[in-house]
Amino acid sequence: MDNNKVPLINREISWLYFNDRVLQEAADPTVPLIDRIKFLAIFSSNLDEFYRVRVATLTRLTNLNEKAKVILGYNPKKVLNQIKNIVVRQERKFNNLYENIIVKQLAEEKIFILNDKQLNVSRGEFVKHYFREKLLATLVPIMLDENLPLPELRDRAIYFFVRLTKKGKTRLALIEFPDNLSRFIVLPETNNLKFIILLDDVIRYSLEDIFFIFEHDTIEAYSLQLTRDAELDLDKEVSEKFIDSLSKSLQKRKKGKPMRLLYDSEMPLEMLKYLVSKMGIHGESLIPGNRYHNFKNFISFPNVGRAELEYEKDMPLPVNGLSFGKSLMGMVAKKDYLISTPYQSYDYVIHFLREAAIDPNVKEISIAVYRLAENSRVMHALINAAKNGKKVTCLVELRARFDEQNNIGWSRRLEEEGVTVLYGIENYKVHSKICLISRIVGGKQEYYGCLSTGNYNEKTARMYADHTLLTTNKKLTDDLVNVFRALSKNTLPRGLKHLIVSPIDSRPAIYKLIDNEIKNAKAGKKAYMILKMNSLADEQIIQKLYEASNAGVKITMIIRGMCCLIAGVKGYSENIEVISIVDKYLEHSRVHIYCNGGKELIFLTSADFMTRNIDTRVEVGFPIYDEHLKKEIRDIIDIQLLDNTKSREINSHNTNKYHKTKSATPHRAQIDIYSYLKNKNKSTN
């Protein structure tokens, strides 16, 4: 905490506490066993990205020395040291959880993860056969020479560092794992016992087949994984030149500066020293781990046991009043509809676009996309619309981190099919999730809007909790027309009356809404805010929230990820409570509720309270005007505030203590929301 300013927690440290909440899910015995393994995978994948981006940025800033302290308000070297200490603790917890708890509980389910030393003759023969059929031809070891530099290691690839010894003389080699094969090989079942072996141990078991030409007394292999700097230095020009520049930068990303070397802690010290000297890697970048790395692959760990070892997959619910057998646009023309995924089906959005693609009255479709599914049905609907003679304009944000390659591919495909593709605005990422359909009926133009807190991505919609609004409300669609008009001219939208669009409107609009609550609190009126988002890091907004708290405004926040605001600090945030919900779905929706003197205002938005979302991105926030939908959103938020099973308290203690409510009855928001929407359907049928 920086005592010279308002109470804040460093964003990187706060993010690590968020990832610890993911680890809590892996440790929770009430979570089905296979899903606990998946939470280990999510924790690992998150940490990879954290090192590739956040730690990479901090490492760059350490080169600025004293200047960095002035700019940032903290010492980046000190924070890097804190990060290492926290990550080492978390890795220890992770390894203990996997080795001493998860593996043992799998064994209780008669599922055994075998290593290379635990194979009997028949299973050994199976593994040898698999190795020679599938693996041997793909593995070419790199023999290392003391006098030559170490070959460039690929970002996040797994390697074996191998040592062969013969009468005190050693040879060293590297083997890169193939990434086109499953990490898990299911072995033949025996007496109802299931056996799984990792690709790592298949290779370990077969090392003699790889190094047979070298005489040796002993052979040993230790895994390692390098995480590189993934930040891009981009040409800012939004053009074909920009696409080429981005493509080249993506190639460079594979060779970025080493950020973290995760290594098997059993590796002999002299082997580790060899790597450190050859790679020039710093001490804070060395993270001891166990014998298995790249745990993100465990997201696809096979369930060879009971169905109950995984969360039951709930069937997506229908949305009241919407029917796939009728025109969705016809229904939306009469009233607004809200789709809350994954509880309700994302197919409504796909169906809405498909209908627009074939409706002869539809003349134009405009859409802004950020992250897309690999085989995107959204994109296929747009391509079909263009083939049917519609004017289709699609803004593809090429700088969506780690999705750049996919988005480049889709942008080129769209252009080939006759879609007008826009590439965003110089210096600003377009992060909004908006679509506008123009229809001519009886000579009159009608507009249909689709605005969301989440991406136009049907794959993530099965896992991300988001809200999508379908509307013909002229207040919203007229503003949407102006937003797309501005984007098509590579300019920022201005002069909007109802939508709150970053970077022009968001900060003043948020301040005005908070100031209204402050004014009401000072006048003795009821004043409160309920804010739900992924991340809170913008210092100016945090100061504004502290000001509101001191004025007596009751502030309740649901923040899944990083939270730099510290709740419950005397003189700053006594009226602020923050909880975080981490459960089987990723809480992704952004919802703002303001008391407004008793006439509640409710907004949904694509933006978090982060400086980048407010000042350097095009984000769209939209009010909910339909009273029934306002009540539905309020009910869902109230259900989340009741959660005493999967919500944690976020405060100065940073312990991620589970949040206890007054109710003695267990409440689990994601289960209760599904029941609420299901019962709502029953009550209206």
Beta-strand level of the residues, as a percent range?
A: 15-25%
The shape is globular
Radius of gyration: 27 Å
How many β-strand stretches? 27
Mean pLDDT: 90
> Which structural category fits the helices and strands?
alpha/beta
Tally of separate helices: 19
The CA-CA distance between the termini, in Å, is 54 Å
State the helical fraction: 25-40%
Task: Give the low-confidence spans.
Answer: 232-243
Largest sheet: 8 strands, mixed
Keywords:
single chain, 685 residues, alpha/beta, eight-stranded mixed β-sheet
What are the SSEs and their pairings?
Elements: H1 11-27, H2 33-62, H3 66-72, H4 76-108, E1 111-114, H5 121-135, E2 142-143, E3 158-166, E4 169-176, E5 184-190, E6 193-198, H6 199-205, H7 207-210, E7 218-228, H8 240-253, E8 258-264, H9 269-279, E9 286-289, H10 328-332, E10 337-341, H11 347-358, E11 362-369, H12 377-387, E12 391-396, H13 404-416, E13 420-422, E14 429-430, E15 434-441, E16 444-452, E17 464-471, H14 474-488, E18 500-501, H15 506-522, E19 528-533, H16 539-550, E20 554-559, E21 576-581, E22 586-587, E23 590-594, E24 601-605, H17 611-615, E25 617-618, E26 620-623, H18 627-641, E27 647-649, H19 669-684
Parallel strand pairs: 1-6, 8-9, 11-12, 12-13, 14-25, 17-22, 19-20, 20-21
Antiparallel strand pairs: 2-4, 3-4, 3-7, 5-6, 7-8, 10-17, 11-15, 15-16, 16-17, 18-26, 19-23, 21-27, 23-24, 24-26
